[in-house]
User: Which sequence fits this backbone?
């Protein structure tokens, strides 16, 4: 999180520059004068609570950082941060559980801003076979498990392609959020053994998505993912949750996942 002891104007200027906006760009978006915005950034004027929230909204500042800016301006934080187990988030937790369960036999999981695992359905566990137990200890980081040489990396058939895709996604996410944990995760991933250069041509998968190709036993699973987030959240926890759902990219993967699902159901009965 950005340190709160900086003047509020410094925070506003940093986020404006991070969004690659000029003072005129932001002033027009916020429907205020460029002069007033300049005074706010230099400390010649102090923003009201409403102005802090208004400018933060125009700059798409993450909720966690909006609290930081409010504190820097002398106001109390307004966005709560509660555990997903908190009774106040019971409806959200039920929604997550319903989606995870309904997505079986296909894998699905929920991660926080830094890609720590929050929840997963039963189809995820078989994919983790052979992962070093240390990587599975809480908090389990999905990116680390995926790309670490003691994680899934040796079994990812298109590791070079997947590694490049994940790094680019993390880079874009860190650029949007300025989260130091994400930045540290990127540096960690870059320190892993360099995988082979991607050799897949875009037309190999229709040019529409990058598959996640994982060997599970003697079976090659080919999956593509979708991402879901909560709409209009006002709680920090919900705003930072991402639901990652995977679908079979071919008929053989679909059949393998259905067979594994039926085997789990039979074993449980």
Assistant:
């Amino acid at each position: 999180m950005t340190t709160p002891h900086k003047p509020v104007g410094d925070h506003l200027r940093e986020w404006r520059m991070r969004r690659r906006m000029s003072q005129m760009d932001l002033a027009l978006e916020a429907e205020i004068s460029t002069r007033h915005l300049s005074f706010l950034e230099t400390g010649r004027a102090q923003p009201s609570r409403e102005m802090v929230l208004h400018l933060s909204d125009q700059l798409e500042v993450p909720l966690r950082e909006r609290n930081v800016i409010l504190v820097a301006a002398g106001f109390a934080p307004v966005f709560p941060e509660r555990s997903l187990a908190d009774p106040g988030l019971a409806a959200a937790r039920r929604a997550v559980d319903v989606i995870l369960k309904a997505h079986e036999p296909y894998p699905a999981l929920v991660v926080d801003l830094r890609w720590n695992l929050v929840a997963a359905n039963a189809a995820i566990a078989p994919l983790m076979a052979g992962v070093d137990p240390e990587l599975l200890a809480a908090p389990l980081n999905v990116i680390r498990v995926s790309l670490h040489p003691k994680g899934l990396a040796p079994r990812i058939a298109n590791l070079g392609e997947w590694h490049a895709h994940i790094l680019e996604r993390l880079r874009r996410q860190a650029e949007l959020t300025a989260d130091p944990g994400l930045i540290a995760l990127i540096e960690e991933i870059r320190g892993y053994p360099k995988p082979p250069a991607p050799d897949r041509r875009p037309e190999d998968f229709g040019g529409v998505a990058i598959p996640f190709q994982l060997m599970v036993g003697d079976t090659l699973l080919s999956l593509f993912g979708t991402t879901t987030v909560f709409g209009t959240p006002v709680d920090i926890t919900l705003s930072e949750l991402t639901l990652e759902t995977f679908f079979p990219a071919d008929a053989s993967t679909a059949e393998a996942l259905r067979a594994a699902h039926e085997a789990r159901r039979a074993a449980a009965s």
User: Anything to note?
Assistant: The longest helix spans residues 159-177. The CA atoms of residues 103 and 245 lie 8 Å apart. The mean pLDDT is 93. The longest strand covers residues 219-228.
